[in-house]
Every structure is written in C-alpha cells, then in structure tokens.
Amino acid sequence: MKARHRDRFRVRSYETDPLGRLQVPILCKLLQEAATAHAAILGVAVDTLIENGVAWVLSRLHLEMQRWPTSDEYIVIETWPEAANRLFTERRFNVVDAADNRIGTASTLWLILDLERRRPVRLPAHVVERLGELGLGSEPRRFGDLVTPDPVDRELAFTVRRSDLDLADHVNNTSYVEWAIEAVPDEVWSSNELAELEIQFVSECRQGQTVLSRSRQVDRGDDIEVRHQLMRHEDGAEVARARTIWRRT
Predict the structure, then answer these.
(1) Dihedrals φ, ψ of 131, to 5°?
(2) Domains, the chain
(3) 56, 78, 114, 220: which has the highest count of C-beta atoms within 10 A?
(4) Average pLDDT over residues 73-100
(5) Is the pLDDT score of 1 beyond 60?
(6) Residue 151, SS3?
C-alpha cells in the first residue's frame, strides 16, 4: 500500500458557480492543498525546496468527475504519489463524497524547477531518497498529445495579477485552469457540466503580462469537446494547452 493522505473540505457558498456547482479552479486548488500537505508529511515540502532554490511545478493534470459537489457539502480528497523517475513524479487523487462514494479522480505529473534558471532539473537527492522509501513505481503515466484549437472560435485576454502568483513567484496552475474555462461558450457552460479536464503546462507567465485564452468547440454526439490554448500576448509563446469534455445535464 502506497503512502496515502486524506483531507476533508466543506464546499463554501462563495466557492460555487451560479448553478450551485463547486467551481472547477477551486477544486484544483483543493487538490493542490491536499498535495502540499502530503508533501510536507513526506519531508519534501514546497517551502523546504524553495529554501534550496528549487520548487515543485505541475506539468500535466487529468481530472475526471462523475458529479460535482454543491454548497455546504463535505468532500474528502485522497492523494498519494504513484511513481517517479529522475524527472517526473506522478501523484494521483480520489475525490470522495460524505457517503464515501468516489465522485472524481485526477492524475498529475510534477517537475522540479530551478528557480534561478527557471528550467526543470532532476529530482534532488533527498527527494529521490525519500520517495524511494515509499515503494513507488518507476514509470510515471505517459500523457497523450493535446490538439490546439484550429481555427479559433473564441479568444479572451487576461492580465497576470499578483493574486495569480505562488510561493515560487510562478503563476499558480489553477489560474491557467481558470483562464481556459472562461473561454468555454456560455451555452456550453450553462447547459452542461464538466466531465473531464486535461491540461499541459508549457511555459511561465509573469506579473503584468497578458494571456490570450483561445478555444474551439467540437461536438462529439452526446458530449461536447472544447480545445484550449493559452498564449502570451507579448511574444506569442504558448503557455498551456488543454482539453475539456462537457456532459449534457
């Protein structure tokens, strides 16, 4: 049995959308909170790594939800590291309701970023040693390629704010999710619920820069797929790309 950690959260009214569902970026923040707490327990805490000039950064996220919790509902997020190699660490999650029914799952890939050079580096020796004690697999999940929106149906612009930055002076991954979701057409968002989100984080943004969130809707029979791409306005560099699947309600 791999080392597992469970955190219990109450969905607060200000964390829900106008349809009463827990907001997608908020759930991503709760996943991050549970992962951060578990990393500290395991001795590979974010703040400790930052003191040594490196930090955990999220590379990929794949979230699947059977249903979305609503205001005042309690959920439990269970998380554990699944596998690690020299560069990537895979962490998984279950989202469980008050009746102990699993209502969602997530799989993530994490990198270690050198904060001075702003480049990924191999896992530090003490992290490798600590994770090695947990009996993890040696082959993290391989994610498939994501398709960019071409042609683009919709484009919105967002300015990176101080509130988007984390301890590593790095735009928090949940802000990318928020910007991507905002480009989903209103008619899709209001009559469907998110069944699946997959996002790949490509490059950084800095405070004051402008991010362009682009999307394209693709009908898939009973479901709707939206393809996403986030670009830096200043130099046209790709920041992230994503795919969301929306289930009719």
Answers:
(1) -65, -30
(2) 5-132 (3.10.129.10), 154-248 (3.10.129.10)
(3) 56
(4) 97
(5) no
(6) coil
